[in-house]
Design goal:
Oligomer: single chain
Number of domains: 2
Number of strands: 12
Helix content: 40-55%
Largest sheet: 7 strands, mixed
């Protein structure tokens, strides 16, 4: 198979030079080279051109793509593409080591989306219900409806945090009908965290045999010291399933790799429904991604600096933003969001879909410096300036 093509300095410097005036950070050629390589050449057809021309700020991806170390590992795994039973870099063992758990506590999936679906099938059959909030990552609820399960959807608090006491109360009132509690932490689309104390409050406040699915897709971006991963609860043997993904900070969304961390007996209940549809390349790439802590830190640092700068600019224009701990944020437009989404699309900027009931809030993923500059230019053209905001919650 062909080896990775080198990225010429001329190819990517020209594309980001204009962004330096927007993002006053130290130049980061490693990330920019990743972005240029991930984008590749434009397709000859109109569809490819249209996709490549978009500033892609809709799906919370890492815009820089897999790191050089990940690409090298995946290129080296092409020799297994025609085989079954190939060496996989000991990906499950590597993940277990990363979290300080045993191999039996890990279940791989084609992205964390498969993990969420597996939990749904394993724990909701027979008419069981999910307890969670709205808005959140709603595919959990849509999957539940597909298997004729139901969801108890609780509203967020006024500051857009998840209402833990209300969750506890809903579980207790519906105890025998609850299949599991869903906690997206940090929450998508709001970017708000559930603190470590609130997670413990939830686990200690509900019957101990009620499973809790905690989706930590955006764990790596959190700065708030009140937050912590819930993996230690797995080590304690609590009825907790942690869902993680390589789709976000590791830049592997199109490659599909995720996993669950949970007690052995909980994973055993899920395994019969697993497809095992994970390819050889991404397994080797996942091992390299976990080890490439320098690339992870670069992506995190650049993403957070861009998010803070963009939020500050929007708030200076009078548009408050929900405080976020993720690689995205929500801005309050003070008008229905759907026409604004379409207006951005006409300017070749893709932004997030509506998230009822927050129908005046726009979710914006953090892209490259150049993409964020394009977003702000489009925002100023689409949205009128208002009186400067006095708060940050919207």
């Amino acid at each position: 198979m062909s080896e990775k093509q080198p990225v010429s300095r001329r190819r990517f410097v020209g594309g980001v030079a204009g962004a330096l005036g927007y993002l006053t950070l130290s130049p980061n050629p490693d990330l920019w080279a990743q972005a240029a390589r991930a984008g590749g050449r434009r397709a000859a057809g109109a569809q490819g051109d249209e996709y490549d021309a978009l500033a892609k700020l809709a799906f919370n991806e890492n815009p820089y793509g897999p790191s050089d170390a990940v690409m090298e590992a995946m290129n080296g795994a092409w020799k297994y593409s025609n085989r079954y039973g190939y060496p996989d870099g000991d990906i499950a063992e590597e993940i277990a080591k990363h979290h300080g758990v045993e191999r039996e506590n890990i279940l791989l999936g084609a992205g964390s989306g498969e993990i969420l679906n597996l939990v749904g099938v394993a724990y909701l059959l027979g008419g069981k219900k999910i307890v969670g909030v709205e808005p959140t990552f709603s595919s959990v609820y849509s999957h539940a409806s597909g298997i004729k399960a139901d969801a108890i959807r609780l509203p967020l608090l006024e500051d857009y945090r998840q209402n833990i006491p209300a969750m506890i109360d809903a579980v207790k009132k519906n105890y025998r009908d609850v299949g599991f509690v869903y906690l997206c932490n940090p929450n998508n689309p709001t970017g708000r965290i559930v603190t470590r104390q609130e997670v413990r409050q939830l686990l200690d406040g509900i019957p101990e045999d009620v499973p809790v699915l905690i989706d930590e897709a955006y764990h790596h971006y959190v700065e708030d010291p009140a937050y912590a991963t819930s993996v230690p609860y797995v080590r304690e043997g609590r009825q907790v399933i942690i869902a993680r993904t390589f789709s976000k900070i590791y830049g592997m969304a199109g490659l599909r790799l995720g996993y669950a961390v949970a007690p052995r007996e909980m994973l055993q209940r899920m395994r019969p429904w697993s497809t095992g549809s994970i390819n050889a390349l991404v397994k080797w790439g996942g091992v390299a991604a976990l080890r490439d802590t320098e690339a992870e830190a670069r992506v995190r640092r650049t993403t957070l600096e861009l998010r803070k700068k963009t939020v500050a600019e929007l708030q200076s224009l009078g548009y408050p933003c929900v405080p976020s701990e993720c690689n995205f944020f929500m801005v309050h437009l003070k008008r229905p969001v759907q026409p604004v989404i379409q207006a951005f699309r006409e300017k070749k900027v893709a932004v997030g879909r509506p998230f009822p009931p927050m129908t005046e809030h726009l979710r914006v993923s953090i892209g490259t410096p150049e993409e964020m500059q394009r977003f702000m230019t489009a925002f100023r053209e689409i949205m009128p300036a208002t009186r400067a905001a006095t708060g940050t919650g919207g």
